[in-house]
Amino acid sequence: MRIISGLHKGRRINAPKKLPARPTTDMAKEALFNILNNTYYFDDISVLDLFAGIGSISYEFASRGTTQITAVDQELGCIKFINETAESFEMPIQAIKSDVFKFLEQATLKSTIIFADPPYAFPIEEFSKIPELVFENNLLEDDGVLIVEHSKHTDISHLENYNYSKSYGGNMFSFFSHPTTED
């Protein structure tokens, strides 16, 4: 895996094979960040990376200048790897070992971008809990976006606050945001 852009562009990250992670492909990451680059100044936002795995999305944000990044994963090995890599690259990533759903139930942290990359094999009920908890607990800033990565075979377009999806190979990103109010 490599960092696509920013200060650390081209740097390779070699995670131990034993870690239970499925990093977002370079092609999908590049496409996602092209979308986000048209909406956000990365140095002005805060990011919550859920089911962070080895931290590939967190590293991309940090490389682009984001200074408020929280990565959450329940696997201690993944959290240790993120901490070691962030320290080595001098990246401002706070890694937290926690079950994501418990974290979302107790969190008070508001973020501009919340990225969730749960296991592709999750049942639809588990996928639906992510936007449900994010919006119920008001964890997304008003101009923010929740992005859920999933397989193209999983349809979550019926969930509340869904906006649209983009497909890249077998990966799909579904975007959720606060409803817009017209004056």
TrEMBL record:
Its EC number is 2.1.1.171. The keyword Transferase applies. It comes from the Bacteria. InterPro entries: DNA_methylase_N6_adenine_CS, RNA_MeTrfase_RsmD, SAM-dependent_MTases_sf. It holds the Pfam family Cons_hypoth95. Keywords: Methyltransferase, Transferase. The keyword Transferase applies. One of its GO terms (molecular function) is nucleic acid binding. PANTHER family: METHYLTRANSFERASE (PTHR43542:SF1). This is Methyltransferase.
